[in-house]
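Let's practice the habit of predicting before peeking. Look at the sequence and jot down your guess about where helices and strands might fall. Then scroll down.
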Amino acid sequence: MSTRPALSAEAQAQLDRELIVAAKANNVPLASELIQRGGNVNAKDAIQDSAFLYAGAEGFNEVLRLTLAAGADVASTNRYGGTALIPASEHGHVETVQILVDAGVPVNHVNNLGWTAMQEAILLNSGGPRQQEVVRLLLAAGADPNIRDAEGRTALQNAERLGFAEIAAMLRGRG
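Done guessing? Here is the structure:
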């Protein structure tokens, strides 16, 4: 095993910034190279994005897998106090949600807005097939549908209020 010389703090910070930029561009080869050179997948930029958090939020699954293999902190949070699973759920990134659940991202984490991944999957999208599948995956992973949002509503109450009958039916069986 070869040992690379330690980078100066400035050089490490530059490498970490380049990794975040590569992740945000979904540039898999460059992200891989930067990780191999010692880029820290948990380093955050000025708006609290890391390569891991951004890849998870945007459904950039190849970059996400690279960051997980390089030791991403699955409990790390973004500027909203949310894990990568919360925006992935909101956007209906079904495969990404499965990757994050399998990696051990906490399914019942509540962000600064008072929402879990399940609440965001319901409140901030259309209730369509991808959102239904996300809710199914979250329930299967042990997500608690009875956690109330900042307005005091459960996931079921929000699904019913928004007219998402398929999601409401799933939640009725679990609540």
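How did you do? Residues 4 and 64 are 24 Å apart (CA to CA).
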